[in-house]
User: Fold Hydroxyethylthiazole kinase from Lacticaseibacillus parahuelsenbergensis.
Amino acid sequence: MTQSITEVFADAFKTTFPLKSSPLVDCITNPVTIESMANALLYIDAKPVMADLPEEFPELFTQIDALLLNLGHISPERKDSLLAAGRYAAETHKPAVVDLVGVAATQLRYDIGQQLLQNHPNVIKGNISEVRRFAGLKSTGRGVDGSQLDQSVTALAELTKALQELTERFPNTTFLATGETDLVVSAKGQWRLENGVPQLDRFTGTGDIVGALTAALLGIGLSNDEAVVLTVSYFNCCAEVAAAQNTAGGIASFREKTLDQLSLLADQADWVKMVKGEAL
Ligand SMILES: Nc1ncnc2c1ncn2[C@@H]1O[C@H](COP(=O)(O)OP(=O)(O)OP(=O)(O)O)[C@@H](O)[C@H]1O
Ligand SMILES: Cc1ncsc1CCO
Ligand SMILES: [Mg+2]
Assistant:
């Protein structure tokens, strides 16, 4: 008998939402979704700061609770600040999340992702196609988007095995691959998460928000696995509620309703009953 995700992470599901303190998260991220990300953090009662100049890190890192490194828009300056912040987080023992945006598309981003992995960040995430490329598998992702072809049962099994091998060298990192099914792999186990709706693939920044919210939950002391599982489940349940409310609306209305739920669903104690997922 496989164990359900709410049984495995019962304490975290019971106690995390609504947040009891406001973690401060520094996000070094892309200009496409930076505003959505800052607001999503505020909606769950976390605090964003979007500081990326390395000169600021010594002062800033005494204040922040967690760091989010998103590869979504690389410039020479942002490349330097991502790498410097990744090293600084390791030195100062701040929890860090790396979002592999676009790693399926270019070698340059793949190389930055691999460099950031050497700091043993708490979480490395991306859509399924980005994580496949990162794990050395064939990927059919296009640009920053994941591909349906990478979602087959065989492809997911292949990715699980490749990530398990990576956790042998990086036992302190949890890997998250998102899509219709979300795959979580760490040295402690493997889990499959099944919430969400297809419309989540139709507005930008859903994955970026998942990265930032994961950093926030690390910032309040959740384990790597707990932070990933709670974030994806909560965000995807928000989207399910939004989709049910949005019968006559388009994707822009769905987006607004999903973001709105980030501040609302936490107060519905029984949201956890919506959660679907199991240990593999
Ligand atoms: N078809 C789908 N069905 C259910 N949930 C989905 C689907 N597609 C994406 N999601 C959910 O949406 C969130 C973002 O996943 P996705 O793989 O689209 O990230 P992404 O490609 O990095 O997004 P973005 O580039 O917009 O930031 C995850 O929580 C994932 O579970
Ligand atoms: C960075 C970026 N480029 C196009 S959309 C987007 C946000 C998804 O990550
Ligand atoms: Mg993404």
In short: The longest strand covers residues 24-28. The chain has a mean pLDDT of 97.
